[in-house]
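Open question from group meeting: does this chain pack into something compact, or does most of it stay loose? Before anyone orders reagents, we agreed to write out a predicted structure and look at it together. Recording both the input and the output here so the notebook holds the full record.
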Amino acid sequence: MPNPYLTLSQVEAIAREAHRRQTDKAGRPYAEHLAAVAEGVRVRGGSEEQIAAAWLHDAVEDGALSRQWLDEAALPGRVREMVLAVTKRDGEDHFAYTGRILATPGALLIKESDLAHNADPDRLAVLEPATRTRLTEKYAQVRGLLGLDGGVRPAEQRDQANPAAG
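Structure tokens returned:
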């Protein structure tokens, strides 16, 4: 019986194509960030669903793919839920945003990997000092609200992020 869902390779290809013309704040192809986040989820023990959500984590927020596309795509509901959990909404404060991530099983691991890549010193080093400072403070605040200070997650958050790793 064929799998009714997109494969991980198909999700990666869709994400790469959707972000094809986009660059990050340092002018690098955006797909490099997506690949780094997906790999970060993988090495942290994430499931295939979490890796798929990592490839798509910025697609709706950045307008690379529509919410309608996400709703109609051949994806497990958990993938959609994780993508929407890490999608920042217009005017949303950090408390509401991080609360949604913490309330969505599997989403914390994706955001942890996203923050790790965004806060990479080599990536930040090429930015203007004011931008680097602003982003460093923002990432630290979000990490704190998610309980990721020091790179160690509390056990209950680790279990929620990846129940299989509990």
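Observations to bring back to the group:
DSSP finds ten helices and no strands in the chain.
The chain has a mean pLDDT of 90.
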